[in-house]
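Quick start: read one record
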Amino acid sequence: MIWRDWNKADKTLLCAAAVFLFSLCLRLQYPENIFAKGFLFCAEAALVGGIADWFAVTALFRKPLGFPYHTAILPRRREAFIKASVTMVQKEFFSRRKIIHHIEKLHLLPMLMDWLHEPQTQRQMLGRLLDYVRDFLLHQDRQEQADFLAEKIQSTLSKASPEEYLARFGKWMRESGRDKEFLHFAAGYVREWLEKPETRKAILGLLEQYEKECTKSTWELLMAGIAQALDFVNLEEAAGLMQKQLVQLVDALAEDDSSLQKEMLELFYEKAEMLGQDPEFRELIAGMKEEVLRELPLSEAICRTLDNICKGFGTEEGVPAGHLPMFRSRLMEIFGEEYARCLEMVHTDDHLRYVVEHFLYDIVVRSALHAQNMVGDIVRDVLRRLTDEQLNHLVYDKVEPDLLWIRMNGSIVGTGIGLVLFFLLVLAGH
């Protein structure tokens, strides 16, 4: 072994042995010299103390000089050491009190909200949600789901009162202004029909029919003939004027907040209210509801809708990707709007924010406490896979400077004790 590879404790022990040999030679050369006696006494004590501490430190890890009794303590008590290490990691480094104390310092909700507001996170969340919806739909029995939904819808509709829903629909139409929009749309459609040449011909035909019905006697025929001869009555011109007047009437009806529009809507709601109180009308509506529910192919329609939705995801065999792209894009828009609304609710609702934050802390604390056991298991498994030599090195490398000083202190303390004892012996001899 090269001198520079020795540690300082081995060098100290070797120096103590050399000093002992030198003091022994000096004692043999000067047997009556008191200084030679004291020097040998101290050197002997230093050598004995160094050897004793070397034996004690070495006995912790292996059998010094093959001595079998109460040596190699760490390898023999490795299970107790492993258990103590696991307990120290779990109870000291990862104790429940320390875990909760450190977690309480974290601002979990702001961290979560900042992460959720990132565009990349939003895209990932919406994409994952779309995947969940797609997988859910594709793994369902569509016919079974369609039958279930159809049964629920029919059960709900059978309990509904048509008159109540009609009244609510009318109230919603009036409050939202949709009645004016509907009237405007209907007026536009009627105006387009009125402006057609066929409509003018139809009006002309009605005037001619009316003329024939009103001129049945000879005198009426004579007067009608004279009026036509003198061009007093021009049915084509009258048809054109009537067509023009009807168009103007429809335009006035389509104009927002016009007197004609207001009168028409008031008349409509008045008659609708009167009609809703009519027993015969109620009986008619109830009969129509039962007939519609009985004949309505809800199950088939829902099943086809589910099929089209699945095709819209482009995942079925034989269906090209991108089928019904508007459905996918609109679904993503709905998910995005709901995602933003949920984040806004967390910001504005104090109670919801408290619930979410409490839930986060609960999850993190539970996970950390569960990790406490996992860390213990990891430490246990790692230590058990180590050989005795590896375990010795693991411990020795962490405390090597202290162990070396323990050995050096044996020689140093032995020298001091030997000097004290020699003086006591000298004093006792005098």
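Residues 219-233, 315-323 have pLDDT under 50 and may be disordered.
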